[in-house]
Amino acid sequence: MRLKRILSIIFITSIPSLIFAADTINITGEWDSMDEKTGYKMVHVKITESAPNLYQGYIIQAFNPPNHPNQDLSALKGFYLLHDLKQDPNDPYKLISGYIINPFVKKSKKVSIHGKLIKYGNTMILRNSSDPDQSSRSVTWVRKK
Description:
Layout: H1 2-22, E1 29-35, E2 41-51, E3 54-62, E4 80-87, E5 94-101, E6 110-118, E7 123-128, E8 138-143
Antiparallel strand pairs: 1-2, 1-8, 2-3, 3-4, 4-5, 5-6, 6-7, 7-8
């Protein structure tokens, strides 16, 4: 009787982890990148999966910030800015590594990133990995429907 009770407790407590483990979130698709401080849309990106839990992203369209002179940003179309974004296989809401190449900086600076998914995987927040106190800007990505 006691063994039966112990097994039932183990089974009941393991159900959430089984459900969570089965919950795979694929981040492929189209996303809009939004600046955290200004709130304006920076780029519209297509994210593809290059290997299991490993993603790349290229620009479909870039947008001029408000109150800035309009520049021709059509040359950025097809530019791969998101590289080797790795999703944690044990926690699909956690993005553990990757890097972004900023096309708006003349020397195309490479920035290491990490992040997380929120709201059922429809919002992604990426931040500079080399910032231990997380005081740098984060970029919010919103999945297009």
